[in-house]
Amino acid sequence: MSKGKARRQELANKFPEMDQRFQELKSEINGPHERLGDTAKEQKSAKYPT
Q1: What would the pLDDT profile of 1-50 be if each residue is shown by its tens digit?
Q2: What local confidence, expressed as pLDDT, does residue 50 receive?
Q3: How many domains are contained in the chain?
Q4: Of 6, 19, 29, 46, which is most buried by a Cβ count within 10 Å?
Q5: By residue range, what is the domain housing residue 2?
Q6: Is 7 exposed, middle or buried (0-12, 13-18, 19+ CB in 10 A)?
Q7: Could you please report the per-residue DSSP string of 11-34?
Q8: CA torsion sign, 14 to 9 to 3 to 28?
Q9: Biggest CA pair distance of the chain
Q10: pLDDT value of residue 37
Q11: Does some domain include residue 4?
Q12: Quick one: which of 30, 45, 42, 16 has its CA closest to 8?
């Protein structure tokens, strides 16, 4: 185990509630994201429908 992983595991054992929150945030970041808008191709086809 690397030094960083060992340190993280040590802190996770010491502060389990913070580790749980960290895992929740990590899953939110890596989870599916909302679409913020149309892609350029979709905008162009909406502007000039065929």
Answers
A1: 789 999 999 999 999 999 999 999 998 888 776 666 677 777 777 777 66
A2: 63
A3: 1
A4: 19
A5: 1-27
A6: exposed
A7: HHHH-HHHHHHHHHHHHHHHS---
A8: negative
A9: 62
A10: 66
A11: yes
A12: 16
